[in-house]
Each structure stands twice: as C-alpha cells, then as structure tokens.
Amino acid sequence: MTSDVFISYSKFDKATADAVCARLETDGLTCWIASRDILPGVDWGEAIIDAIAECKIMVLIFSGHANTSIQIKREVERGINHNLVVIPFRIEDVPPSKTLEFFISTPHWLNAFPPPLDSHLDYLVRVVRKNLKIQVPPPPPPPPLPKEELPDLMNYANKTQKALRGVIRESLLQAAKTGFPGNHHAYITFLTKKSGVVVTKDLIEKYPHDITIVLQHHYSNLKVLDDHFLVTLTFSGVPAELRVPYDAIIRYHDPEAQFMLEFEVDETV
After folding, report:
1. 151 burial class (0-12, 13-18, 19+ CB within 10 angstroms)?
2. By the 8 A CB rule, do 266 and 194 touch?
3. pTM of the model as a whole
4. Do 183 and 201 meet the contact criterion of CB atoms below 8 Å apart?
5. What are the extents of the domains in the chain?
6. Which fold has domain 156-262?
7. Which of 28, 89, 184, 268 has the fewest Cβ atoms surrounding its Cβ within 10 A?
8. Is the CATH code 1.10.630.10 the one for domain 5-132?
9. Between the CA of residue 28 and those of 20, 21, 87, 129, what are the distances in Å?
10. Judging by DSSP bridges, how do beta strands 186-191 and 210-215 pair with one another?
C-alpha cells in the first residue's frame, strides 16, 4: 500500500521515530515504519525495498547511531535512487559521514534540538506537507470588524510589518558580524518570484512559489544591506548566491528562541 512517508531510523532512536510517525499520522499523513509495518515471516530487505518504492518522502532520523548505520546508508541510497525527497531530521548535533553527506548534501536540515521535541515536529509536518504539495488547512477567518470601527488612515499595519522586518535585518546583521550565538539559527521562507529576488533557475523550477532556507552551519558570504541580504548556500553540491529582499520574506523562525514572524506579502509586485 502506498504511503506518503518512509521513516528511516536506527533501532537506538526508535522512540523518536515512533513520535515522528505518530505526529505525522495525527496530521493525516500516511507513514511506513519498519517496526510496525513489516509483518512476521516477511523478508526484511524485500519489505524495505518495496516500501521505499511506494513512498514519496523519506524522513531520516539523523543521529550518531544513524550516522554509522550501514542499513541507514542503504535505505538513503535506495531512496535517492527512487527519487524520494529525503528530509534529514537531526536529533543530535553531529556532522554526517562522507557517505551520507554524498547523498544528502543540502542546507535544508531540520534540527530537532534543543527540546521539547513537539515544537520541531510541528515544523516537520509543515515541511512534509510542502513537499507533498498538500495545503495546510487555513485558519478560520477573523470575526467581522465592528461597524463603528474606523479605517486605518495612518496605515499602522504596514508600518508594523516594516518595523518587524527591521528585526530580521538587525538579527542578520548580528549573524553576519559574529555568527548565530549558541544554538540559534534561522529558517527564512521567501517568495522565489518576488521582485528583487535572485535565485538560480533550477531553484525557481523546483520551488516556483516559495523556498525555506536555513542559516546555521552551511552558509557563507552573508551580507546585510538596507533593503535585502545576500548569502551563499550549497544546493546539491553547487554553491549559489541568493539575493533576498526583506519584503519577499513571508516567515522568519528561530527555533532556539521559539521566535517566529510571519508576513502578508503582495505577490503581484
């Protein structure tokens, strides 16, 4: 039976794998996980190969144990061979082995530390849904404004959004000078076709609406200017400089501080 997500994990990380499976399935996504879905008497290797072929995404529970597991390397290689999107969900701060780095050399790591795990699982659900092109259910509409409420002739809403984008600029200025302190890092989601954005043609084809980049370990040449920033990231082993205007950003998230900003962006400009 076809599933959305194949969960690859070391036996030492089974508790985390079970938590990931439960959270994804609570959100309506179907998962395949070996400890539950390989029936007694079925050939283990054959079941793994069949499951990978029938899934669309692989979530790799990445840890020190997974990093040295021959079985994990085989599963990731098979996943890449079947064109699965591999999402590394890193639960320990360890660099990947050369073999795994060969297959998953991407800046888009999802860090699941520090605790609590639940906050990181919420973001994982959103990333999986984005890759499956499943829309997240929209929030309920706000209640209608009271009739006596006057229009905002001072345009305070736009002024507020501009000020909050200034928070992003100041944070990136600090990172450009001294790096992100401690475990702080930034997930930045921006519109790829917004005026002033410069990304490679391959990225626009792969992410025609928006893309989320991670500024933590694997970035360089961060330059923060008045109305945009420049940064170099590596995609599939190839470095590329991105130009991102602040008014193209729709989300800024620092999991370490549990800090998130979201913006309404005019996509027609």
Report:
1. exposed
2. no
3. 0.50
4. no
5. 5-132, 156-262
6. SH3 type barrels. (2.30.30)
7. 268
8. no
9. 13, 11, 18, 10
10. antiparallel
